[in-house]
Amino acid sequence: MISEEEISNSSENTNTFNDNILLLPNVGQILQAFNYESNYLTFDPSQATYFLYDIGSTLLENCFYDQAYLLFQECLRIAEQLFGNDHCDLVPILNSLAEVELSVSKYSDAKQKLDRCIELCDYGGDQGFISKARAYKNYSKLEMELGNFSISLEWINKSIEKLEKTQNWHELSELYLTRSEVYIMLNKFNDAQDDIQKAIDLISSKEEQSPQIKATIWATLGLLYLTQGRYQEARETLENSLNLSIQLFPGRHLKVAKIYEMLGSMYLDLEEYEEALKMSQECFDICGELFKEGGPNYRLISCLKILGSIYSEKGDYEKAKSTFDESFGMAQKLLGESHPMVADIYFRIASIFDEQSDYSAAVESLEKALKIYESIYNGEPNCNVSAIHNNMGVILTKQNNLDSSLEHYKKALDIVLELFGEFHPDVSMIYMNIGVVLGRKGDPLSQITQYKKALKIDKQIFGKSHNGMATLYHNFGEAYTCLGEYEKARKKYKKALDIKLKKYGQDHPSIALTYFLKGVLNYKQKNYERALELLDESLKIRLKFHDEKHVEVAKIYRIMGMVHQENRNLRLAENYFQKSYQIRKVILGNEDPGVTYSKNRIAMIKKDMAMKKIRFDL
Question: Where would I find the H helices in 164-272?
Fold first, then answer.
């Protein structure tokens, strides 16, 4: 009977050969070497299965999926000839075939192998427990990648229950870490932390520790910290995991790609976009090499969606859209319409529609994402749901649906406070967004109160000069401008601009926003010439990233019209108000306050010019 332990500790005669197996470029040469070795060692068929399995396991461990699969298939063929089609000795081979298929996202094929595993391994003893536990673990991974997190948890619980009856501490520690990942997906962070600690305790009690398990512990801790917004801890643990994993797997390896992906996501959250791009590109390059001929792959899709968000934040909306489209097409084909990966792409695509002032499309995209997430989490608090409510609030604010936006912010805030407590980046962001709404409602003092709450959180988490603070300084500046505290506003805008110029350089929509706000400030202070210079700079940058029919462009035209009206350049003022009016009317409709404002200004200017003409005629 072939057990997992027997196979992993099979004949010493293969060790030297196994050490050199990765030097062979293709499976044909591997089989040639196998034929030579089998003749030299006079293998019987039973020994051949050990030999092929051992080589296949080495190849699988190093992500040579095609070669490993062919060897496992050959191993299965020999084993079926020896034992028949319904013998428990087939189980380790079937498990390994399923693991290859899971790695390359062949889910239906993997499910067939695992179903057969479970049918065959109903026998007693430790071997049965290990084989069944491994099949259950693989089933858990299958369901997790399919987005069925609760079912995934059921399978991993079964696996742990089986393996806790053995002394296989190495496998058990891996299972605890796998379950912690499932808990993280379900936002059950305390349970995830408990399982990570169990794995740490388990390996700490052994004299001979596994570096692979250590790297996995760091990676899982990094995922937990990243999801919780604990970025400093996430950076430290993920970098530790990456450095050790590169030593363990010097070639292109899926575990290394996954760590690069998490680092890319972390730097994206931190608004360090060049580092985010560097990490995500590493992930993409590895996945591209591993899966270049295999069709859609889970890890590749996940990497692409992060790259799309990075391009979006850098202002390259065309590239972002094409990247999202590519990842979305793969995700729908591989995972179906109701998968959390699809929901996440809908969520990210909404940001492109938002930047393009296509608010109805943005809302539609967010609603699709929300529907998927609500069906997955069944009302349980989840950070993905809170993020959708927050972004829905942002869009509704831009549409001047202020009461509705506050309702969404309240839902988002309730979720994140329950999940994370007060000191979390998402809490800060929601306080800031609520402040924007209160400012729109004409309550700048309450607006500033919300910003101060956000600032207190951000300083504790990030320090004083974090990239994300620039938006908060912008918002403070706007509020102080409304209160007539112009010097305070000017200082806040300077802080914002200093941070953003270091982060983006001169050409970025965020720089355009700062110039616009400084232009408004100078208009309020009656520095009309300087106001026009800043507004013109803002417009030039905007038009590099958007066409003219964009809400932010309309805002610039409106303030330009106001400046020219104050300077009594009435024809220029009318021209800019007309431009603003036409853009906002198309995007936001006749009920938009900005449309009404420009319309009234145009009427006033026409009346003023008519009076001028009368006086001139007289």
Answer: 169-185, 189-204, 211-227, 231-248, 254-269
CB 233 within 8 A of CB 252: no
> What mean pLDDT is reported for the chain?
87
Q: Could you tell me the pTM of the whole model?
A: 0.81
Q: Which two tokens stand for residue 602?
A: 């145009």
Q: How far apart, in Å, are the Cα atoms of 96 and each of 76, 177, 268, 398?
A: 10, 20, 35, 53
Q: Which amino acid is at 149?
A: F
List C-alpha distances in Å: 608 to 184, 568, 575, 599: 64, 10, 15, 14
CATH number of 251-380: 1.25.40.10
pLDDT tens-digit map of 164-215: 877 778 889 999 999 999 999 999 999 999 999 999 998 887 766 789 999 9
For residue 89, what are its two tokens? 């000795």
Exposed, middle or buried, 171 (CB in 10 Å: 0-12/13-18/19+)?
middle
For 99, residues 6+ apart whose C-beta sits below 8 A from its C-beta are: 60, 110, 138
Q: Where are the domains of the chain?
A: 251-380
Instruction: Give the Å distances, CA to CA, from 487 to 262, 369, 470, 477, 524.
Output: 42, 43, 17, 9, 12
- For position 418, what pLDDT does the model report? 95
Question: Are 244 and 229 spatial neighbours (Cβ–Cβ below 8 Å)?
Answer: no
What is the spatial distance between Cα 503 and Cα 517, in angstroms, rounded to a whole number?
19
DSSP 7-32: HHT--GGGHHHHHTGGGS-SHHHHHH
What is the spatial distance between Cα 543 and Cα 315, in angstroms, rounded to a whole number?
12
Number of neighbouring beta carbons within 10 Å of residue 597: 17
Here the tokens at position 118 are 């479970």
DSSP state at residue 188: -
